[in-house]
Predict the 3D structure of the following.
Amino acid sequence: MSLYADYTDITGLLFDKLDKKRFLHTLGVAGTAACIAMSQGYDIRKAYLAGLLHDCAKYMDDSEYVEYCERHDIDMEDVEVSNPGLLHAKVGAYQAHKKYGIVDGDVLAAIRWHTTGRPGMSELEAIVFLADYIEPGRSHDPDLPAIRKEAFEDINQAIYHVYRNTMMYLRDSDKILDPTTEMAYRYYEDKVSNLD
């Protein structure tokens, strides 16, 4: 399967693997990624493909991710072992390559980083990261209308807004904070403040 694989085949495979809610979310992310890509002058098909496969490993229970990573020699950080749900991004990138035949490094990296993001994300990584947060089925953040607007006007501002809200949520809920998320928050905070 090449980068421009038959989306119908991939969509069918995902339909068989994912529960209905996750499948609908997947379609929402793919479509949203394509729209953001179009607004940025980025490769629409590539963005759609990365969005389509971003949660391809979400059919597993959290308890399965650590064992899967051990079996396939996928590196894990301590925070990921403590919070195995974070591993679905790494496992997804692995499966996108091994099971779906994706060889494009940009697409695989966008899948890999869609959950935590990272400082200095590539354009495609940023697109999929944002699309996952703002797709039409999401309603978890009261600031979503503003962030959706920013995604098409100032992508860095939108990313910073996502990180700011995520950090507040994680701190208020006493959830484990992935160090990469904190570093990315600081990176995009600096990036936005330097543009003022």
About this structure: The longest helix spans residues 20-40. The mean pLDDT is 93.
